[in-house]
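Help! Submission page says 'invalid entity' but I think these are all valid:
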Amino acid sequence: RIVELLEDHFAAEAPRPLLKGKTVLITAGPTREKLDPVRYLTNHSTGKMGYAIAEEARKMGAHVILVSGPVTLKPPFGVETVNVESAQEMYEAVMKNYSDADVVIKTAAVADYRPKTVHGKKIKKQEGGQTLELERTKDILLELGRQKHHQLLVGFAAETDNVEEYARRKLAKKNADMIVANNVTEAGAGFGTDTNIVTLYKKDGSEVHMPLMSKADVARKLLAEIAHQLERDGLK
Amino acid sequence: RIVELLEDHFAAEAPRPLLKGKTVLITAGPTREKLDPVRYLTNHSTGKMGYAIAEEARKMGAHVILVSGPVTLKPPFGVETVNVESAQEMYEAVMKNYSDADVVIKTAAVADYRPKTVHGKKIKKQEGGQTLELERTKDILLELGRQKHHQLLVGFAAETDNVEEYARRKLAKKNADMIVANNVTEAGAGFGTDTNIVTLYKKDGSEVHMPLMSKADVARKLLAEIAHQLERDGLK
């Protein structure tokens, strides 16, 4: 860790401390929604995008709080990591830290639905089909948008079709400042990969296309955009 | 790997080649049952028990075929590993290798149910709840029991209650030779741990209790029981 600190400090390409003094709250990974003690609903998020952003934000001088669903990644050095499992736990951890945050970046793939009933014992299988009743989880980004005061709010949209339309709609509906959208069906984009292909949609109507690049590069570019936006907002 | 071979060979406690000339087919890990390209149903199995058995069986001289669901473990050295994702893929991989097997050990936590409809595009969330229609997957152990000729068939039962009753019923219903049962709610047993607490129920009505021990020790004890059973069956 000392070596890591020294490397950061002396690196020729050490990032500029664009986020010094800022608190950046990041969510990452999937959530797990239990049916019973054994089974759960989840999704393919591995947390790589969020962990890359957490690491780069820390290198840019930010105080980083990372709220993470269950992933196999190592907690990034120098980052305050809060581990959660369900959408409800993620909601609570995010809201608890919201007032302290200058920037919130929601990369987590939070379950939209959870089983209405969570069984305390393993459900035994029976002949024939079953019906699983699902209910909506809390929409964290929507709630953050409603309670927004000074925070810059950045959402992610992992889509398989009509990416721009969904991203623009999400930006407006959630009162977000930026939406980072990717088409998870593209090779080199989305879940589990070390690269991504994204487009950043901003509230002012502009957009920034980022072609295939490493998730670390996407993180750096996104954070630079965020830092510039914070600077512009500060001049108002 | 050469070092590993040498270590195996010269180890003071090198296991006896009890399974030399035998083919052991092992299933491990969870399965994933897709709702759409992003979401899936799964369970807490990490594959540790099955991978431990694969490794020990190989050390005892067996030819090992490991059919594995998605896990983060490294494929064991010297083991033929077949990676699958869904219950259906696991069923096909197991049946394909069944006639070659002398022993089948089913540690995988295969999904009993899968979504009736798999959506090609990400399902958009809507207001209010949803109903998910589930259908039964193929019961692999039942099918193996039906088609059994010379094979010794070992099932696992991960239960949260009435462990013995369920295990005994499973043994009879599936035409299995042994059921290894554990109560996944006990500390030190079940999913994700490096230890286990199991009871082995045999067709002859006897049982072997294994108190808290490492999954490698459970594997060795179980395989020794299997080797002795094969020997007894050979004398008939």
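Support: the input was valid. A stray whitespace character was the problem, and the output above is from the cleaned input. Chain B touches chain A through 39 residues (CB under 8 Å).
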